[in-house]
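Re: that backbone. Tokens:
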């Protein structure tokens, strides 16, 4: 994933003003096309060339790192360290980021160990094996310095690689880089 931050200052040509502050190459090209008129074409064309130059350099040097911001969103990997805040204590664990799952899930033994106030209800989970009913508890967790309050379904995740799974409901404000682990 390539995220390029490009800022173009305000230009004024015969009473026309353009202000572009873009964060990705696609947005830059799109906005230039949308605002193009004959008098601004040269400046916009130069901007596109500069953007392409940055894209080429970023791809070859691998500048973008997980945790960087892109389009105002934080880039995360498919497995991230999170801190779950329980009623007894906080625990840092590795969590699987799963955009295929709607809801987040936590291992029932981990949830009991860190403590929760009460069972908030139940939900129906649909997966390849069919439908299953699970209890739901509320926790807050911290992902990339962002505190998120959410509901986790309780599951036996002891045989799985990760005791916590973060579903897409809790991934607003994040972009996932699937190539990173």
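Recovered sequence:
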């Amino acid at each position: 994933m390539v995220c390029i931050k490009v800022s173009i200052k305000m230009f004024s040509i015969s009473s026309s003003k353009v202000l572009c502050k873009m964060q990705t190459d696609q947005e830059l090209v799109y906005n230039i096309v949308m605002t193009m008129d004959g008098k601004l074409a040269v400046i916009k064309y130069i901007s596109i060339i500069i953007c392409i130059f940055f894209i080429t350099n970023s791809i070859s040097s691998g500048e973008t790192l997980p945790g960087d911001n892109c389009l105002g969103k934080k880039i995360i990997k498919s497995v991230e360290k999170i801190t779950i805040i329980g009623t007894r204590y906080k625990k840092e664990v590795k969590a699987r980021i799963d955009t295929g799952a709607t809801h987040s899930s936590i291992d029932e033994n981990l949830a009991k160990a860190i403590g929760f106030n009460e069972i908030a209800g139940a939900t129906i989970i649909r997966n390849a094996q069919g439908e299953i009913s699970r209890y739901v508890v509320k926790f807050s967790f911290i992902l990339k310095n962002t505190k998120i309050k959410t509901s986790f379904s309780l599951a036996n995740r002891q045989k799985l690689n990760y005791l916590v799974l973060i579903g897409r409901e809790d991934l607003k404000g994040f972009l996932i880089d699937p190539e990173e682990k």
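Residues 52 and 175 are 22 Å apart (CA to CA). Residues 1-67 have pLDDT under 50 and may be disordered.
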